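Protocol step 4 of 5: obtain the predicted structure for the target chain.
Materials: sequence only (see below). No template structures provided, no constraints applied. The aim of this step is simply to have a reference model before the mutagenesis design in step 5. Sequence pasted as it appears in the construct record:
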Amino acid sequence: MIASVVSLDRQAIQSLKIADPYTIHKFVYSLFPGNRRQFLYYDQGGDLRFKRILLVSQEQPLVPEIGKIESKFIPDSFLDHQRYAFQVLLNPVEQPSGSNRKVPVVNKESLRVWFSRRQESWGFTTDIDMLEIFNMGVQISRKNGMDVTHNMAEFRGILDVADRECFIHSFTDGIGRGKAFGFGLLQLRPLKIIKRRNCHGQYVQR
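Step 4 output (C-alpha cells):
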C-alpha cells in the first residue's frame, strides 16, 4: 500500500476548477487511470488558497500536472499493532425494516449506536462512550446539473483490533458507503499498550 498527500495551492485550485466534492472526486480519479478503483481518499480541508488530500492506494498515483504529491510505501508491519488512534469520515445510513430505501442517521446518540453495531464487522472494537463524533452534516456535489448528496459524520477514538484479517481489509478497502466521494478512509496511528501493576499486584493494560 502507498500513502500520498496531494497539496494544491491557489493557482492549482483555480486551474483545476476545484469547487465542490465532485470536482475533487474527478481530480483524484485522474491520478489513477483505469476502470477499477483501488484507492481511498480524504479531503483534509483548506480553502480557495490551499487544499490537502490524503490518498491510500494499491498502486502509485500519477504525478499531477498541477499541484504537488508526496508518496511513501506503508510497511506491512504498520498493520500488526493491537491498538490505534483512528479517525474516519463515514456516510452513515441504514435501511429501516420493511423499507427498500436507505435513510440518513443524524443525531449523535443514533450515530453512536450505528457505529457500535458495525465496528466488529470492520475488525475492531472501540470504547463507544469515548467516541468523538463531529463534522456532522450533508456533503453536496453538483454532477451533470444535479445535486448529489451524502449524509456525513466524522468519528475519532481509539480502537483495538479484534479480527486482524478483517481489520486489514477495512484499511485497504475502506469502510462504509460513499468511498468514491472521499468516505471510508481509516486514518490510523499506532499506540503502545502499557502494562502496569494495580494495587493487588496484577498487571492491567492502559
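Step 4 remarks: The first strand starts at residue 2 and ends at 9. DSSP finds four helices and 13 strands in the chain.
Proceed to step 5.
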